Each structure stands twice: as C-alpha cells, then as structure tokens.
Amino acid sequence: MIETRQITKSLGDKLVLRGVDLSVKRGEAVALLGSNGAGKSTWLKIAAGLLQPTSGEVVINSQVMKKEDYTNRKLIGYLGHRSFLYEAFTSIENLQFFARLYNIANPDERINHLIDAVGLSFFKHEPVRLFSRGMIQRLAIARSLLHDPEILLLDEPHTGLDQQGVAFLNELLLKLKTIGVTLIMVTHDFYQINGVCDRAVVLKKGKISQDENIVGRPVEWIQTLYAGKEITC
User: Fold this and answer.
1) Interatomic CA distance for residues 206 and 64, integer angstroms
2) What is the pLDDT of residue 97?
3) What pTM does this model have?
C-alpha cells in the first residue's frame, strides 16, 4: 500500500534519516516508535508528501509519488502536531474550508457526521479559539478524515485527549482498520498502541533498529523492544 525506499533526509548538517526502508500493507496498523530526534515525525511528513526527502522515494500502490502527485496525496490523511485549523472559524466552517480544498461535492452530510463522531455536536457553531486542547485535537482528527483517506498518518494522535477521547480514538482507529484503511502512528504511548497496532517499528538515529509483530504481546514486551534489549518469545 505505502512504502519508503532508502529514504534519507538532511536538515542543515544533520542527517535525520539514513536510508529508511519501510513497507506497510493495506489495512495494517503500524506504530512508529523512537526517542526524540530519532526521525519519526520527519519520516511521517515525507510519507505524507509534506516534506521532500534528500534521497529515496515514497511509493503508494506501486507508484512512485512525485512532487506534484495530487492523485496519490488525496489518498492520505495526515494529523500532525499542528491542527491546521483556523481559530476564527467554527467547527463546521473549518471543515467546509477543507472540503473545498479537496473538491468534495456536497460535503455537509459528511461534515456533520464527522463532527458528531468526534463528540463536538454541541460545539459545531462555536469558534475554535474557545476550544480546549482536547477539543482542537478532536476536530483535527475529523479534518484528517474528511476526504475519506485510504492511508492515515498520525503524529501522537492521543495528545490532549481525556480518557473518553482516547477511548473514542482507539475505537475509531479499529473501525478504520476493518474497512481496510492503513494506519501509521508515531507515538510514545505503548499502552494505546497495544490494542490497535499490528507492528511496532523502532527508529534509532534515523535508521530502523527493530520491526516486530506485536499482536498479543504485553506492553512490557513492547517496552523491551523500544529499549533495544534482547527479547524472548
């Protein structure tokens, strides 16, 4: 579904990514782990087409993604550290704006469905500047799903969410998996990936150091994988 081949990225005189080969199948959920500065967010931005690699290529459905490849980019939903929301707009106005960017015809039903799905139905006409951090995150999740993407790239998606929000997000991600959406999630929260993700990929100093199936594994096993220690079955 999506893969990166020998991706490198230099920022100034620092080599952030060092030949990352990663392939994720349709409907698979992968957690991208690593310490701060390991290159996780940089890889995610390159996979989303928001950042150009220094070398290497991104491949979606066996097609190399080019700089002006808007067809394949429409297959991708991206949730980063920035919400990309406009504070003066309401929830509905924000999603209407992005619907126009994606050329979504008659988006009102989709917009209202997503606002209800993320638990903001009572705030759909309130400006985002009045929202809490968790409410902004919920609306940003709705924004990333607006165009019904086949690939969802998430950078620490549980940030700012309360327990109810975390449970809602995990339930939503599991539903997306059942319909074949491919998920790649950058996170430091081992407990949240344990029930959602199929694989854990650990980046260390810009390279993949571990790539393991985590289905049925306890959280402690994932922590050991992250730490790079010898693991036993």
Assistant:
1) 22
2) 97
3) 0.93
